[in-house]
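Blackboard transcription, Thursday session:
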Amino acid sequence: MTDPAAPSKDERPPKPRPAPIPDADSAPYWQAAHDGRLVVQRCERCATHQLYPRDRCRRCRGPVEWVEASGRGTVYSFTVIRQNYSRPFRDWIPYVVALVDLEEGPRVMTNLVGCAVEDVRIGLGVRATFEVVSDDAGIALFVPDDTAG
Amino acid sequence: MSARNRRAVIAGVATSDYPLVPHMSEHGVHGQAADRALADAGLTMADVDGLATTGFFPMYATGVAEYLGLHPIYLDETNTGGSSFEVLVEHAAYAVEAGAADVVLVTYGSIQLSQMGRRLGTGGGGGAGFAPGPAIYDALWGNTLVGNYALAARRHMHEYGTTAEQLAAVAVTMRRHAADNPQAQEREPITVEDVVSSRLVADPLHKLDCCVISDGGAACVVTTAERAADLRHDPVFVLGAAHATTHHLNLSAMADLTVSPAAQSGPAAFARAGITPADVDVAQLYDSFTITVVLTVEDLGFCAKGEGGAFVEDNGLAVGGRLPTNTDGGGLSACHPGMRGMFLIVEAVRQLRGQGGATQVPGARIAVAHGTGGMLSTGATLVLGREAP
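(Written on the board underneath:)
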């Protein structure tokens, strides 16, 4: 059995991040992140914000519209992944998977980057930063928000 | 035929060989467990008119029926992950009580250890192909199955001050029970220090906070009290059952990581059974990870929310403790082939029959089996009793 902590002897070229395949619900979300913007859905009837994207509001089944998000949020919970056999993730160990509550309300899973894994805390203020992963999709990573109080 | 004598009972239970059966096929494990459960009941395949099972392929139950040579008139393959078998027994109880079937065979089989080995649970993040439809949203970040439960553990620690040592106490007690189970995968005693000094897989969960990965299967026979009257064992009654779900594979869609679906299924099942948590003599609680058990004892109402850490400390889950739990050693030490729910039911029935061996809870009359599936996504509670309601 391979020791996951051992240096990788893998000499294949680095594997890129997996890219989502946009569908009718998600295409505007992935395209916005591709363009460096974070958007969320807002219900035209009850004003609830939601992610992930859906055909209608999950609270009242009202119609939804896309609105710009501030890109700021706080860490609801996090873990430091220290074992993952899948590429490309195995090459990043240790790395942080976090659940971030956006200012607008929705919660997203993400990678928290740009700080030591030891410095991550629940309640930490974070802001979105974007990575293009395909011709029609980007993803929102988060970094500590130095502008937060 | 009166409604009373169609009360649903479990008349036979068995486990297959476990935890490692490289010489057996997945369906062969089903067959061995089924034969043993029917023999335990004093029945044969010819008596079976219903089949309930589930696996990772569509039309799975149909395939198992074909393999076993069954032509059932009742078929169920509801898949709620690790809690599936509590749901399948709940459904089977409704079926026999309604007269849709007389003898429902519920089987589980897996050769996960032989097939996949230790990578399961830490191979997450396969991307779009791995996560069809909305499952993609949490699948892009290299999170793992262990990582999802770690996120819940971290939040519980944050809100309630739960400690790594308290989580570790769950694993220590399960190992203590496993020492008395000759089939258990891991039987060497461990300490809290052993758990918290084992390798971190996904903070704050260590290797010994995680279940073992095994081959194995189990089965039970659900029938009516009337049919069971002349069978080998005193029947075990299905007193009440319920299940619930809060989300699927996206943990980001779970509103509160410290409250599992057991908070819905438990009270509903207890109400249907006409009992309270204080009436429960022995519990078989899905222990995919130590945190799973802490959440479950709180959500089922054995202690208040946030007090699960203190509840499991000091041998709280040991035979003789506050709530004797996982008397076979659980998934943490005895056997976890992927969807462990069937094992919970077998051990609950054995306890109620007085067949618990060295970990028998003296005079156990009411047992609870609670399955948890997915990423804390589903919960299913089954209340079983030695006496008719």
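Lecturer's comment: Chain A has one domain: 27-144.
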